[in-house]
Amino acid sequence: MMLEPLLILELALLGVGTGFLAGLLGIGGGMLMVPFITIILNHRGVSTDLAFKMAIATSMATIIFTSLSSVRAHHRLGAVRWDLVKRLTPGIVLGSIIGSLGVFAWLKGSYLAIFFGLFVSFSATQMFLNKKPKIAREMPGTGGQLAAGGFIGFMSGLVGAGGGFISVPFMTGRNVPIRNAVATSAALGFPIALSNGLGYVLSGQAVQNLPAGSFGYIWLPALGVIAACSVLTAPLGAKTAHGIPMSKLKRVFASILYLLAAYMLYKGLKG
Question: I need a surface site. Which of 14, 87, 186, 246 has the fewest CB within 10 A?
Answer without folding.
Answer: 246
